[in-house]
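User: I'm new to structure prediction. If I give you an amino acid sequence, what do you actually give back? Let's try with this one:
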Amino acid sequence: MNQVFTAVWTFVKKNPYSVLLTLFVLWMCIGIFPLRCYEFDGQEITLGCDVMYREGWSLPPVYSYEYRMQPLMTVLLVALKHVLPFFTCEQTYCFLSAVLSIVFLLGCISFARHITQLSKTWILIAAMLLPEMYAIAMYANTAIPAAACFIWAMILISKDRYLLAGILLCVAVLFRIDVVAICPAILPLLIFDGKSWKRAIGISATYGVTVSVVCLFFFWLMNAEALNTFGAYQKWSGIITASERFAAILGFYSLAYVVLLPLGVGVIVVRKYWKELFLVLFPILLTHYIFASFGNASKHFLYIAPFVIIAGARALTWLKEVLRHRPVMKWAVIVAIVLFMVVSVRKGNLNMPWIYENPLT
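Assistant: Good question. You get back a string of structure tokens that encode the predicted 3D arrangement of the chain. For your 361 residues, that looks like this:
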């Protein structure tokens, strides 16, 4: 038994990233299966896709949810239904969202490593401490493919593969139009990668104009009235309360990042990584400004996850160095992290008794 334990421990020490990533994905699978939409938005989208599959192509759909802001998902799901008729649109939507959530996770890790040059293991731990990184795998949502396309477009931009990046940005916007809120992050990325301000502004502006023109053409082609979306956002801004917005923000960052985000930003400032600071703070502050009157769900802040994770990774590696010779404090932090990952407190909602019928809740 001791030999088996030693062998397992040796393998874990040699391959911490692979082991953690595997465990994290398996943990996500608890919520991924069975493939069911429990968010009303997703249920309406898949219902509309089922209707279109039975009655024939119709753009805009006879029934859908906010088709005007996310038309590509409806078209994709109906197309996949024709290719894979033995799966329901709901199952396809859930499975696709789960797969793309992992694609997004891997993209965040790759992007953060490019920026910080830190160990992938520590970046993965930073991602694991951001609840939305695993929550997105458990409910189908168009923000997931949009975020996945965006982060890999950013990675391609950092490699000077501008055409492919532009295609991915267009696809991201067609999946969900509000991803445009995070696209200005291209500018600080170009500055970080050594481009002059003049060249960075020129490339960013070119992306802005080109992506806008291409996407508006495809929105028109799919009969999606994208420009009317802004009126809907203004309408909801007057309905959503300050307490709902606060709950969404706290739900996104969680208690862990209430500590890690300012700590990570502080580490970046102390080390005078000014370009990295610009890259981290600009998209975060811009997103909170844009959604200041609207963001009522954690998914609305998903697009800033890569930049938050960068700060989290900086904070964790700093803590590792500080606690290296303080074993009591080190184990206290480890226990706190483990408890944070596996223990939670939920406020019950008596208006939705059906929730308690789910054994996973």
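You can read the tokens as a compact description of the fold. Here is one thing that stands out. Residues 242-270 form the longest helix (29 residues).
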